[in-house]
Amino acid sequence: MSAGAPARTHPDPTLTSLDIGHPVYAAILDPKTAFWALVDKGRVADTLAGGALRDAYRRHADACGRELHALRFELKPSGVYLNPTERCNLNCRYCYLPEAQRRSGGHMSADQLLASLGRLRDYFRSIMPQGRKARAIFHGAEPLMNRDAVFAAIEAFAGDFIFGVQTNGTLLDEAAVRFLTARNVSIGLSLDGPCADVTDATRRTWSGRSVHDRVLGAMSRLRGYDAWSVITTCTIENLPHLSAMVELFHAREVPTCMLNAVRCTLSGARAIRPDDRAMARAFFAALDRTHELYRESGRKLVVANFANILIAIRAPTARRLMCDISPCGAGRAFFALSADGSLYPCSEFIGLPRFDGGHLLADGGVEAALASDAFNAVSGRNVDTFSPCGECAIRHFCGSPCPAEAHEMGGRMGNTGAFCEFYREQVKYALRLIADGEADDYLWDGWDEGTETLFDLAH
Question: How many other CB atoms are there within 10 angstroms of residue 360's CB atom?
């Protein structure tokens, strides 16, 4: 399938099998349309040769292809990541932003931030359905280093955007929590260990001081608020502690967490990158532990990045994150505004000048950025067109993330990201949960409201 071309049903559809490591079931998939089914392992050959499943596939392949095509090539932006400062009060070993920016970079002035949000509001109003608000997430470096400007912007544009703040949590004092929670702002924190020694291995202040207890204090202040989450970046330093990590989150009533494999865009992150197999073992053990805790307590701790893989399989267009589809969401579903007013496909690219799509207020705005070579290099990355992704059965459940990582590690967009085998194993784990009827235990309650079942055949 060429980029941008709608999928079509072939007279002899190409279905393939995948061993998912389940004692009873295997998966049958069409890689081009993301159509899949689980079948008895002893009946794979018969199923591929013909029968009810193959006939059903022929009836539904066009609809599956159209849905996937729309998700991959027809989205318009509905969100923006706002980076109101280049500075951070921490020096995390894996940060994707250059050290010089984080140490002594500039703030965006309050006036410029307000003017930028006004321009962004007008842009989103021009492309989004009436009454629907775009999401605006204040993002890293550390947005609360420029707190006065951020809070002024939230106050001024509360009626125009759904706001969020992604923060390291160290500056989230009582006053900040009161301001943000009173305005229903979603809040994301970061914590990398269940104890200070583990956290401190990757996340410290510039002077080397621990921030572990300060983040725990922020978590305590947020307890009982619905719209908050915690990100753990998985590295060789905390991999043995992921199960303890989710135990801590569950005990502190964290509604949602993310266990993100470290992004290897810059060299510092690559030095602490886990092996794929070790990452999979620790990650699945942590997921298993969340399930045990749910069974014991009746309260879920959703691991959002894995939940998104599950949803991508069961209802592709219902997914909440856009990293595990190709092209990814960067420059399509969202984009990023840097502290100097430039537009980038995603915050992950802000330290890479060649991906600067132009200034929001001076160079033609969002429309010009979306059409720029810088953005097209990212939004044109298509797993159908390069190996080994183009031959992979699960490529549309994975998306070969991340473009910034792939480009910086391999020198071109036509490379896999850093964790190809890990993502493949994630999909198999998800399919095993579906086979065992346990998938909903790992998802938000009501995740499927508004979805429509296209195909359901007991086989």
Answer: 26
